[in-house]
Amino acid sequence: MTLPPTFYKSHAYPPPEKVTGPVNIVDIYLDYACPFSAKLFINWYENLYPKLTTEYENQVQFVFRNYIQPWHPTSNLLHEAALAVAQLQPDWFLEASYQLMKNITQFYDSETFGLTRHQIYDKIYDVCIGPNNSQITKEDFIEKLYIKKTDKPSNSGNAVTNDVKVFTRIGRQNGVHVTPTILINGYKDGSIESSTPIADIDVKLRALF
Questions:
Q1: Thioredoxin-like fold domain location, by residue (predicted)?
Q2: What predicted TM-score, i.e. pTM, was given to this entire model?
Q3: pLDDT at position 22
Q4: Which domain range does residue 120 map to?
């Protein structure tokens, strides 16, 4: 399933305006609370993403696919936070994802068990967002995630709930279970794991163009 246009500016790199011809799509299904996702994304963001607009000449595009693993209790909140950033400042979404992955251990079960939902949102901002991006205020960030009081019990979610549903539906449709899962031009590549050397990924991607 193609990336909904709403997310082109945030989740696709290089962004569509830099892609002038046919492009090979690498979908990356990741979970912010999954240590294997963090290992892969940190490595790729530092060592592969820079090549996309230079050595790969925009012929390969990476698409970040939010995929919540429900056995990680904080996963949903971390993904909501990232999608809030995508709404507030789309071009900073990938950097926000990088910051979340680098600080993943601060959101493990042992570190968040005694915190409320809103305390976890606060922690995400204080650790990952605020120190790295002064343009996104805590007030604007929390507003995207706030659950408003209603006269009757409500389960309608917040400003990013529909975005969570979109990515969940896409992942289920494509039969994704574990994270990370990599699709190249729509086909799962089970040979790519979090520990796969960058050199091996580089060879595989260069063969596409």
A1: 25-188
A2: 0.95
A3: 80
A4: 72-176
